[in-house]
TrEMBL record:
Family: Belongs to the RRF family.
Gene: frr
Domain Ribosome recycling factor: 24-186
NCBIfam families in UniProt: frr
Protein name: Ribosome-recycling factor
Keywords: Cytoplasm, Protein biosynthesis
């Protein structure tokens, strides 16, 4: 019988949902909360030697104090390119240069900017929820196909419940991560 052979790959669905959650954490790390973090520079690409290069591959990124990030650029000729990349990145930080060291003082966030960042965090979370729902839909489509190939109604229900449980767990993880990030953003 076909229903005895059917095995939904729950590990694959879980792995894909975890990937969406990991992507959300990366996006949250790039949101500036008034505290210095080396991860806020991860999306910044520097045009070095004719190719876009991650900033951590042209210099050492440090956080010497809570409101300061420094980049010790290894090649003096790239200092200007690093400054330009930071200014064009949309981070809202003006770099200051001292030789090969680029300093990024993190300004205090005002209330309006905190609300904007909170909305951006909510948008990131919604994108992650959509990704989770897409994984759920893929799993349910596999179940529909298996049902038309002879999967019993009871087995279909059991597998559907498993997929829904994975989805609910992932969505609640996203919600709690969003709550934590919004509290961090709104904290003065």
């Amino acid at each position: 019988m076909a229903d005895e052979e059917f095995e939904l790959d729950l590990d694959d669905l879980q792995r894909r949902m975890d990937g969406a959650m990991g992507s959300l954490r990366t996006e949250f790390a790039s949101l500036r909360t008034g505290r210095a973090s080396a991860s806020m520079l991860e999306p910044v690409m520097v045009t070095a030697y004719g190719a876009p290069t991650p900033i951590n591959q042209v210099g050492t990124v440090n956080v010497p104090e809570p409101r300061m990030v420094t980049i010790n650029v290894w090649d003096k000729g790239l200092v200007g390119a690093v400054e330009k990349a930071i200014m064009e990145s949309g981070l809202g930080i003006n770099p200051q240069t001292n030789g090969t060291i680029v300093m990024l003082p993190i300004p205090e966030l005002n209330e309006e900017r905190r609300r904007e960042l909170s909305k951006v965090a909510a948008q990131y979370a919604e994108s992650a929820r959509v990704a989770i729902r897409n994984v759920r839909r893929d799993g349910m489509d596999q179940l529909k196909k298996a049902k038309s190939d002879g999967l019993s109604e009871d087995d279909h229900k059991i597998w559907s419940d498993e997929v829904q449980e994975l989805t609910d767990k992932a969505i609640s993880g996203i919600d709690s991560a969003l709550d934590a990030k919004q509290q961090e953003i709104m904290q003065v």
